[in-house]
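We were asked to recover a plausible sequence for a given structure. The inputs and outputs are reproduced exactly as logged, with field labels preserved.

PROBLEM: sequence recovery
POSITIONS: 134
GIVEN STRUCTURE:
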């Protein structure tokens, strides 16, 4: 429903009250991770409104949904995630990369600018090969 449906379909499942929102697939991705590639903010917001999510949950590569949104440059998805209470923009994935590393690598200027503009983004974190986002 998350990948092919709309927010109404997702809400139907959530309304049934029997969905385990912390279940993950073989690569550790939860429904929140699955909502990012579709670039559908309404589905993402529907999931987040349940209040049953840790927005910083990681998949097997250590990526949070924010890493994924930053990597592909989905600005609206990125903003929804970043503005979710508890979202940590400085978390490192399994490669030591933060959302800023990912946005910089994909030339996502909007996301880079937004992260830097918060004043809370650590620009000096080095990834596993010693590179900073700069």
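RECOVERED SEQUENCE:
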């Amino acid at each position: 429903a998350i990948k092919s449906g709309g927010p109404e379909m997702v809400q139907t499942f959530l309304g049934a009250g029997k969905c385990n929102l912390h279940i993950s697939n073989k690569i550790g991705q939860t429904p929140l991770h699955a909502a990012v590639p579709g670039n559908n903010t309404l589905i993402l917001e529907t999931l987040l409104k349940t209040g049953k999510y840790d927005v910083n949950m990681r998949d097997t590569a250590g990526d949070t949904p924010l890493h994924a949104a930053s990597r592909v440059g989905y600005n609206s998805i990125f903003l929804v995630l970043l503005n979710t209470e508890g979202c940590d923009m400085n978390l490192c994935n399994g490669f030591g990369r933060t959302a800023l590393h990912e946005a910089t690598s994909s030339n996502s200027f909007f996301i880079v600018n937004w992260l830097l503009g918060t004043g809370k983004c650590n620009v000096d974190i080095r990834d596993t090969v010693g590179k900073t986002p700069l």
